[in-house]
Amino acid sequence: MRKLKIRNRVGLHPVMTFLILCFVVIILSGFLHLFNVQATFNEVNSISGSYQVTTESINSLLNLSGIKYVFTNTVSNFANFTVLPHLIIILLGFGIMERSGFLKTLITILTKKAKKTTVTFFLVFCCMISSIMGDLSYIIFIPLSALLFLYGKRNPMIGIIASFAALTCGSGLSILLTSVDSSLLTTTLTYARLVQPNIVITPGSFFFIMLVAVLTLSVIITNITENIIAKNVPKYEFNENKDIDDDLVFTKNKKRGLLIAFIGGLIYLLIFIYNIIPGLPFSGNLLDYSQNLYIDKLFSYNSFFSNGFVFIVTIFFVILGLGYGIGAKTIKNNKEFVDALGSSLNGIGKILLMIFASATFISIVKQTNLGNVVGGFLVNIVNNSQFTGLPLILLFFIASMITTLFLPTPINKWLILASCLPTLIEAGISPEFGQVIFRFGESVTLGLTPLFSYFIVYLAYLEKYSQNDKQFKLSKAIKYQVPYSFISLIVFVIMILLWYILNIPLGLGSAVGI
Fold this sequence. Notes:
With 514 residues, the chain is mostly helical.
């Protein structure tokens, strides 16, 4: 009798998916260029303050110059991919905090008697308000969320999915003005002053609507996580000797370790905070005094704070981990200290490979100029729609959603979509509300696009903690984010309708209409 061979079908690995997407984009760019696909729209010259005609065209990579670009720039694009150095440096801090036992002790104490929903809400809320940290929040909270759930005796994949959803859905929700908001505001004012020369927009102009959005989404994301995601992720099998400690005893050594860690961390934080406060004796050393606004002094490209923030956070983590290790006697000499620093880098080869594939895919799409063409095309649709009121608002909201799928970076995207602001203002919609609509729209779809640089961190950690024999697929990672994206879409649309119909103030001194 003939024996049947049963094959265990393995899904397409994310690395292979990215490589296939690279070939698809290269071929697509050739066809789009052949048909002269382009978008022409009016843009404001930031120097002269007047309109200029801008044409965005597809760059073909299906030719000799395109192939040369791929082969000559792939290595440099990978080396300059921001995610790579930031992740490696931050992992040094996580390594010593984890190996010393600091994170395990602290998280177990905090979560031992806490309700699951409370822990999830706390994580989600912290992620939602972490926009002040910029993109670094993805590298900090995604690994931390995995350990938070792991040491809390829950599937770490749940924490990874929830934290990424909160970070992306909350990416455009800034209660406090951030460096990104400052850049967006500059562009908003440039376009708004074409119609309203004397307009002034204050840093608190978005406070009310952003606060409501953060609190509402924190509750909703928590509920989606507990009622949908937690019930659909694969079961996680714990290694009793490694992953959890059922009989954790708060010993004298552990108490001493936590005390030393907290004292050391507090001293470091006080020194750090003093150096970002201007006007005090020998203070403000981390600021860029060539800027006018404090937020720009803090986060400008030339500030010591902005350039060194990743290292500043890493040193803080090292102090916590080392302080605990010394006090708890889990780190006894310099060799153990060095081993602890590098422990999080063990087995990082697969993550590096995934980052390489992602960096290559993103650089190829950027080179084709596809995102700018899509954005310019949608700008023309909005400006030529002849819509007013709610139809115009919703159309602009959809334009922001779609553009984000191809052009995730908010500053570059707003330089294009802000061309719609004069149309919105002429329809009686304030530029502040226009910026809010834009930020809401990009928050809906940011978590769904692999073109977002930090999507690969989310994908890599899902793959790391996946215990399924089959490979974790890119499509599965996106599928986990769909419920969050769909519900956030509904929430943002309802908020836009309420604020517009009831004319609720957006913040301090700002309104929905002109």
